[in-house]
Amino acid sequence: MNPDLDRLQTYPFEKLRDLFRGVMPPAGLPAIRLSIGEPQHPTPAFIKDALVANLDGLSVYPNTPGSDALRGAIAGWLQRRYGLPAIDVAHQVIPVNGTREALFAFAQCVVDRSRKSAKVLCPNPFYQIYEGAALLAGADPAFLNNLPENRFGSDFDSVPESVWRDTQLVYVCSPGNPTGRVLGFDEWKRLFELSDRYGFVIAADECYSEIYFDDAERPIGGLEAAHKLGRSDFRNIVMFSSLSKRSNVPGLRSGFVAGDAAILKKFLLYRTYQGCQMNPAVQAASVVAWNDEEHVAENRRLYREKFALVTPMLAPWLAVTLPDAGFYLWARIPESICAGSDTEFARALLAEYNVTVLPGSFLAREADGINPGAGFVRIALVADTAECVEAAERIIAFCQRHQQR
After folding, report:
1. Strands 328-332 and 167-173, sheet pairing
2. Contact 164, 131 (CB under 8 A)
3. Can you give the pTM of this predicted structure?
4. Closest CA to 271 of 135, 130, 105
5. CA–CA gap between residue 381 and residue 373 (Å, rounded)
6. Handedness of CA 79, 83, 84, 85 (dihedral sign)
7. Can you tell me the distance from the alpha carbon of 121 to that of 314, in angstroms, rounded to the nearest whole number?
8. CB 293: neighbour CB atoms within 10 A?
9. What is the dihedral of CA 59, 60, 66, 69, to 10 degrees?
10. Which domains does the chain have, with CATH numbers?
């Protein structure tokens, strides 16, 4: 067996099952699950109709680069959304089966195992696929703590030069999971400068980019920042995006990668062996989804409504503010409630009020002497508005019960 499999840590939701083992929630309260980032708004009918109308595509093998129509729809969306110049659909875009599989596969393609020391830099807290991808690629993950005193920003200058010298790949997540932090233009600029100096590749995970709260402050993307800096060849950056959150189709498993043509040429070669072509019916449904913005605007409206209601309800009890973007509240537990323990808070909340949240320590690793997720919980406002408000009411009742004065 691959010995690197033994380096993988337990996935957060496996940890959650272990934490909740033996808990019996009150039978009189229906379960409200805010622990997993699974969109629960209805899938638009026109996407389902396109999927059904193209089921004849099941009779043929799809090709790895995807259809011209899909790559064209993705390129058109990128140009409209980020004000980019014409995208080379043949060389700068590849459809993928959701960002999760692509983020993992990308490290297997990029990391050079022949180098004596290989590192992959990840934000901390983070999406655990980054760590697993690094380990299975034969690299060592390095972590950059995103802390509340820095508004969960990425202080790239705090990374030691010895780490940068060995870094081959940097994962960034903007808007961030779980913090909701959006990388600013100056952060992108600094990251590109460091990439030029040390030669690493940037993997920009942007699957939450279309859930934001102010139309005048849309999250800047990595390719957009590169273009504004005169890097329109997108050298050393590849972005990852998906329809899952944008269009409420997590089960469709449809996304894309776009960016540096030289890197994507190698990634395409890797994928021809991996066997990860996208179903033709899924491709057809994806084309109509990328070409429509009306349903995305309605999706944002629903999230804005929930955040506007729930955030001020919870703010007197948990240290929580509106994130830059995304659908998570990253809430800090005060010492006066469950002694600030994220695991105890989550377990007791389920036992007493049948609401599930995810302990922040499960989403981070100890680095520089701390686990930056400890003492936080991630609350995914993915259910409908009434259910999210009811969950907030139960959390408030729980906090009142456990408040130590």
Report:
1. unpaired
2. no
3. 0.96
4. 105
5. 19
6. positive
7. 33
8. 13
9. -60
10. 3-42+295-402 (3.90.1150.10), 45-293 (3.40.640.10)
Q: Are 283 and 95 in contact (CB under 8 A)?
A: yes
Q: Are 328 and 381 in contact, with CB atoms under 8 Å apart?
A: yes
> Of 124, 108, 103, 81, whose CA–CA distance to 4 is shortest?
108
The label of the residue with tokens 């950059």 reads 144
User: In sequence order, what DSSP letters do the residues of 124-165 get, joined into one string?
Assistant: ES--THHHHHHHHTT-EEEEEE--GGGTT---GGGS-HHHHH
Tell me the two tokens of residue 213: 């709260």
Interstrand relation of 355-356 and 237-242 (parallel, antiparallel or unpaired): unpaired
**Burial zone of 83 (CB within 10 Å; 0-12 exposed, 13-18 middle, 19+ buried):** exposed
8-state DSSP, 182: P
Q: Which residues contact 256 (CB under 8 A, 6 or more apart)?
A: 74, 93, 94, 95, 96, 240, 241, 242
Averaged in consecutive runs of 10 residues, what is the pLDDT profile of the chain (405 residues)? 93 97 96 95 97 94 95 98 96 97 97 92 97 97 96 95 97 98 97 98 98 96 98 97 97 97 97 92 98 98 98 98 97 96 98 98 97 98 97 97 77
- Which residue do the tokens 């506007």 mark? 308
CA gap 44, 42 in Å, rounded:
6
For residue 141, which of 166, 163, 158, 122 has the smallest C-alpha distance? 122
Question: What CA–CA distances, in Å, run from 347 to 99, 314, 333, 392?
Answer: 30, 18, 14, 16
